[in-house]
Amino acid sequence: MNTKPIKMRSRGYYSLSKRDAEGNPRTEGCPQNVIGNIITYTGAEHSLLVDSLDASLYAAVGTSVVERTRDSTSLGSEVSGRTGGESASRAGNEVDNLDGTSTVTLTRELFFTLGSKVGTFSEVGLYSSSAGGVFIAGQLIKDEFDNPTTVTVLVDEQLVITYTLEWTVPNNSLEVGSGSVTDADSNSYDYEIWAQPYFADYNGTSGTSRYFNTSSSNGISARTATGTTPRTPNLRQGTPWSVSLGTGGTVTANFSSETYGPSYFSLEDIVFLGIGIDGYYSSSSQGDISDTATALAASSIQNKAACVIKFLTPFSKTSDNSFSIDVEMVVEV
């Protein structure tokens, strides 16, 4: 089962300032404008699908005069030493675009300690760790005419970088694929694939998403036509989603060939399958899949599916048959 690409867009910008030893602002030798930059393909993949949008990030400076591109994996010539890490809060920073997407705007203020960065610098960037890590975003320092320039920092000055990243993600279920499957008895079943909202809670406090990161698992949960909750426990085995970044920012996530033997479950009228759910379910809080495939109403954010398979004719899994599923989701970052 394969999906059409799910598009997630991003952009970034930053501003520079300096302070003296008493914390007073200094404007000499420091551009006063807001500078646009790129979010790299690897940075977008890491933030959207591996870590979380509100995770701690670290700023760095360099001396290269070469523009960064979305294929860049580092600053051109980074100067050793980064700021401390700063996270961001998603709560209150997500705006509904009324087109099935939301834009999340996250700002971090990152400080170099006084006197730790002395010299003239021409580029600024963000990384996922204090040493090494993924190059999230960056660009040359620009003047008000968008021409490359530099910032000069003296020994008695502190450089401050205010970095803003904007992410546009699905906030509603999207139909992203369809097809048919055939069982061992040659019965054919048509299906639709519904990608779930990126976040489990709109404008919530957690930046954890449904999509393929550490909260996303290799589990499935089934709901039948007659059941008000899934009729099976969450089924997990093997490894979680495997995620790979291709050219041009295309990320492929594969829920790879999971097979559940005859003894796992027996359901004669499966209507919905939630794919990639973490955690085990119990009693009536088992993460009921609604009949419009728009949400999984589990009590915790971890009990959420990345996608829902909707069978247009109920699918039968009998006690003498195994059940195998392979789902490939594609995201453009």
What do you see in this structure?
It is a single chain. The protein has 333 residues and is mainly beta. It has 2 domains: 6-169, no CATH class; 172-332, no CATH class. Helices cover 3% and strands 42% of the residues. The strands form 4 sheets. Strands 2, 3, 4, 5, 6, 7, 9, 10 and 12 form a 9-stranded antiparallel beta sheet that branches. The model is unreliable at 279-302 (pLDDT under 50).
Please summarize what this structure is:
With 333 residues, the chain is mainly beta. Helix content is 3%, strand content 42%. The protein has 1 helix and 20 strands.
Structural key phrases:
nine-stranded antiparallel beta sheet; mainly beta; 333 residues; 42% strand
Mind sketching the topology for me?
Elements: E1 6-7, E2 9-20, E3 25-26, E4 35-39, H1 41-50, E5 58-62, E6 94-96, E7 101-111, E8 119-121, E9 123-127, E10 135-140, E11 151-153, E12 157-170, E13 174-182, E14 188-195, E15 219-224, E16 242-245, E17 250-260, E18 267-277, E19 307-317, E20 323-332
Parallel strand pairs: 1-20
Antiparallel strand pairs: 2-3, 2-4, 2-12, 4-10, 5-9, 6-7, 7-12, 8-11, 9-10, 13-14, 14-19, 15-18, 16-17, 17-20, 18-19
Structural class: mainly beta
The number of helical runs is 1
N-C termini distance:
21 Å
Q: Which H/E pattern describes the elements?
A: EEEEHEEEEEEEEEEEEEEEE
The stretches of 5 or more residues where confidence is low (pLDDT under 50) are: 279-302
- Multimeric state of these chains? single chain
- Give the number of DSSP strands: 20
Summarize the main sheet: 9 strands, antiparallel
- How helix-rich are the residues, as a percent range? under 10%
Backbone shape: elongated
Please tell me the overall pLDDT.
Answer: 85
Tell me what portion of residues adopts beta-strand conformation: 35-45%
What number of structural domains do the residues give?
2
Could you tell me the radius of gyration in angstroms? 24 Å
